[in-house]
Write a structure and sequence with these properties.
304 residues; alpha+beta; D-amino Acid Aminotransferase, Chain A, domain 1; D-amino Acid Aminotransferase, Chain A, domain 2; nine-stranded mixed sheet; eight-stranded antiparallel sheet; 27% helix; binds 4'-deoxy-4'-aminopyridoxal-5'-phosphate
Length: 304
């Protein structure tokens, strides 16, 4: 059982797994009015270290903005609660899931007097797309489902309801034997994966769709852009990538908290190839950074 959790922080208190319950008439369940984060904590020589807490906390609060969802626990309190969860469960590396949502009051679409409920859980979680995927790469299918336009729903907010689109795309791909989907935006350009950002390498330069393409502003995306530039690469981080460019790319890879840096070896029935040199360099540097085999980027880590 991967979800090996015995303590959950909920609305300001540590509770047992069995007691972390909500009412079936909670607003968030009916209308997808929740916001969440996925954060990794890495096992390092100086103990567990949470990767980019501040950026994840900021995105959590920002995600609530369009929905008027106010979280009245500050970042320091959530961070300390998370560290305490890690200590109490004696976790080394783990995945951290904060979630805030409208709870029960009335079931009109307007949340009116619904309280904001909030919880944090942490549990051990390995490579999202499989350990071998990090080395060998994954096959992805361009989804028949398009991503919502940011004029329809804020795509830069990590809202629970958004993920029905991710599910449709991901499950369609898996039913057809692919590991993951790749989702185009309404214009038909490449947006992102269901839970990953996309990068493309061509002639030694790096391209990734810009925020105006309707993507989530991924924190791993930001980290990889920073790492790549510091290694001397040219990174075009406001690119528009057409579907056809996927087929002529030298390399493609996904980034994400869960997926980390995962090479893409095939798109539909077109072979991209084995993990290429740029992907390999960025991936190995990324793991050196997060596992703290370097002192660089120390400001990205909060030690438990
Ligand atoms: N896009 C989507 C739709 C996601 O759900 C995620 C995962 N949070 C990402 C991109 C990658 O973001 P991050 O690197 O912050 O995990």
């Amino acid at each position: 059982d991967e979800m090996d959790v015995d303590t959950i922080w909920m609305d300001g208190e540590f509770v047992d797994w069995d007691d972390a319950q909500i009412h079936v008439l909670s607003h968030g369940l009916h209308y997808g009015t929740g916001v969440f984060e996925g954060i990794r904590c890495y096992d390092t020589e100086e103990g567990p270290a949470i990767f980019r807490w501040d950026e994840h906390a900021k995105r959590l609060y920002d995600s609530g903005q369009p929905y008027g969802l106010e979280i009245d626990h500050d970042s320091e309190e959530l961070e300390e609660a998370t560290k305490e969860l890690i200590r109490r469960q004696e976790l080394e590396s783990c995945y951290i899931r904060p979630i805030a949502f409208y709870g029960y009051d009335s079931l009109g679409v307007s949340p009116q007097d619904c309280p904001t409920r909030i919880a944090i859980a942490a549990w051990p979680w390995g490579a999202y797309l499989g350990e071998e995927a990090l080395e060998e790469g994954v096959k992805v299918k361009v989804s028949s489902w398009r991503k919502h336009a940011s004029s329809q729903i804020p795509t830069n907010a990590k809202t629970t309801g958004l993920y029905v689109n991710s599910l449709l795309a991901g499950e369609e791909a898996r039913r057809e034997g692919y590991v993951e989907a790749l989702v185009l935006n309404k214009e038909g350009n490449v947006a992102e994966g269901p839970g990953e950002n996309l990068f493309l390498v061509r002639d030694g330069e790096i391209y990734t769709p810009g925020l105006s393409e309707g993507i989530l502003d991924g924190i791993t995306r930001n980290s990889v852009i920073t790492i790549a530039r510091d290694l001397g690469y040219t990174v075009h981080d406001e690119a528009t990538i057409s579907r056809g460019e996927l087929h002529t790319a030298d390399e493609l890879f996904f980034t994400g908290t869960a997926a980390e840096v995962t090479p893409i070896k095939q798109v539909d029935n077109v072979t991209v190839g084995e993990r290429g040199p740029v992907t390999e360099e960025l991936q190995s540097r990324f793991f050196d950074v997060v596992e703290r085999r370097t002192d660089d980027y120390d400001e990205w880590f909060s030690y438990v």
